[in-house]
Amino acid sequence: MRIDIITVLPQLLESPFDHSILKRAIDKGLVEVNLINLRDYSTHKQKSVDDYAFGGGAGMVMSIEPIANCINALKTEREYDEVIYTSPDGELLDQKMSNRLSTLKNIIILCGHYKGVDQRVRDHFITKEISIGDYVLSGGELAAAVISDSIIRLIPGAMSDETSALTDLLK
Fold it and tell me: What domains, with CATH codes, occur in the chain?
């Protein structure tokens, strides 16, 4: 399995993947996790990735241009089963969803930031929106870590006692 996580704060996500079950699964080659800095896909001199919302209102949103550049570049390398957006108004993550996602081959997780993303991103690129709870976080990075953890631990071989993961599914 391959998980590509698009974020404006890749350093925030390094630690969860450097320890415990996630690290062992990566080291065993069961999963590949790539932290992709969205700013690398910005065409602005300052590498900005935000803009004012087209419809107005307070706050900034993540611009479509760098997100489109990034996702399109990734899609030239492989096909993706899901392009997930972490959003407080997405479908609530549960064990059944984690189980289904753990069977996929390639996924992208886009971490939201600011007041969200340009609506065109949701309309044209996102195949699934996932929430980890009925609350708002500073950004989608922690949600991406939770989603990834819930998926990776279910991959056969990730846990030393696979029956532990199986019994979680029965609850």
Answer: 2-169 (3.40.1280.10)
